[in-house]
Amino acid sequence: FSKLIVAIDGPAGAGKSTVTKKVAKALHLTYLDTGAMYRAITWLVLKSRIALEDEKAIAELIKTVTLCLIDDFKQETSQILINGENVTKNIRTLEVTQSVSLISAQVAVRNKLVRHQREIGCSRGVVAEGRDIGTNVFPDADIKIFLTASVEERAKRRLIDYESQKLENISIHELKKDIKARDYQDSYRKIAPLCKATDAIELNTDGLTVEEVTSQIILICKSYV
Ligand code: C5P
Known about the structure:
- By secondary structure, this protein is α/β, with parallel strands linked by helices.
- The chain has one domain (about 5-200): Rossmann fold, CATH 3.40.50.
- The protein has 9 helices and 8 strands.
- β4 (about 75-80) and β5 form a beta hairpin.
């Protein structure tokens, strides 16, 4: 498995993070959370008080940015540092979540992050989660999974996440609205929009437990090797 590339794409809240971490741990591969990278850049843009639409200023800002992902697959955790600052928690706020799609649609941001993601994938086996992994970042990935779930189910899962991590108070109604808006922005942007790769296996996770989804994906990976 050491050089295996597993791509896990899908819309917001389909359960990608939890499942991807578990699959990476089981297969002893690096967990690559590409959403966290877009979130970290978004956090920096917000902190720098640059307008989200100011592509020129953002392109300039990120020229010298350093991103560092620390993966501890034994603990199923990962940390992200931007310019040396640990922003693992800061990138999960509502403000970042509601702003990230505007940032991830920008060409300079995508070019920088996709290059970084490919460098990581070149050096070792990864289980990468995102929106364009199977279609754009690693089009030759060994295994491609497209995880989906109904908006209803995804909002319920996000609510549990928010409550357990003691993030902001948010209603299920607002979560549904956010999820739909983000799906729309991510699916209709010009560059590398969210879509299922033609050779991806689609898994609808409605009504399935994390363990069930994880073991299905591990089975698919094992049958590949
Ligand atoms: O997966 P997560 O919710 O953390 O992703 C945050 C956002 O980052 C997505 O809504 C999308 O705008 C962007 N993203 C992306 N391409 C990826 C991963 C995430 O555009 N490969």
